[in-house]
Amino acid sequence: MTTPVLDVRRLAFAYPDGHQALYGVDLHVHQGERVALLGPNGAGKTTLVLHLNGILTAGAGTVTVSGLPVAKANLAQIRRRVGVVFQDPDDQLFLGSVRQDVAFGPANLGLRGKALDRRVMDALDKVGMADFADRPPHHLSFGQRRRVAVATVLAMEPEILVLDEPSSNLDPTSRRELADILRSLDVTVLMVTHDLPYALELCPRSVVLSDGVVVADAATFDVLTDDALMAAHRLELPWGFDPRSIDSLPG
């Protein structure tokens, strides 16, 4: 098998107050995969994600992205390769127009002129927001702001797109539109979510983190239909949703 684009080995981390959040986590994601990271609140999912682009650094173990260790000397390169879309789009949108927000990252890398304009419009086109380039972000709907937040990350041309609860607070139409966008992207995706139907729809593979360790790594359908696993780790499907009734699964 090819080398993983994301390779986490025996990652352990404790916060300064002594709380141990991760206990030797292994996670390997290959290029082009879409993987859901599932688990109850307090499982360590956010702590793990914050290690992927060096916001936190490992107490023990290693994290590498395309063979490059996540370490202080490599942070600029790592943060180009790993793009994180946070749960609240307003954490990423802070300038006067959509165009300015999407241009911010590439401009900081030195891109200018027509090359910058092309990068911005290409990213906005991928999320269906090109017509909104000159609108102030605060005039957009929540779903539109989330799509622009994705564009700000895509404009950096990352190898890995990490999404924190991408479907939260979206109405059904916005939820479907975002799913269509994510399916269309030619990028490796790691999606942290409590939305188990969304995980089933978008991610063929799921990793379950619980109490700081990986307790399952399997096909999403197999995870969601393992009643004992689900009950043991406080994972619950929405009322009336049965994965076994789904006609087609992501490939």
Q: How would you characterize the overall build of this protein?
A:
With 251 residues, this protein is of the alpha/beta class. It has one domain: P-loop containing nucleotide triphosphate hydrolases (Rossmann fold, 3-Layer(aba) Sandwich), CATH 3.40.50. 33% of the residues lie in helices and 24% in strands. The chain has nine helices and ten strands. It has helices at 45-52, 75-81, 98-108, 113-126, 142-154, 172-184, 196-202, 220-224, 227-232, and strands at 6-14, 20-29, 34-38, 60-65, 68-69, 82-85, 160-164, 188-192, 205-210, 213-219. The strands form two sheets. Strands 6-7-8-3-9-10 form a six-stranded mixed sheet, sandwiched between helices. A four-stranded antiparallel sheet has the order 2-1-4-5, with helices on one face. Strand 4 (60-65) and strand 5 form a beta hairpin. Helix 3 (98-108) packs across helix 4 and helix 3 (98-108) runs parallel beside helix 5. The model has no long low-confidence stretch (mean pLDDT 92). One of its GO terms (biological process) is cobalt ion transport. It is found in: Cell membrane. It is a peripheral membrane protein. This is ABC transporter ATP-binding protein. Keywords: ATP-binding, Cell membrane, Membrane, Nucleotide-binding, Translocase, Transport.
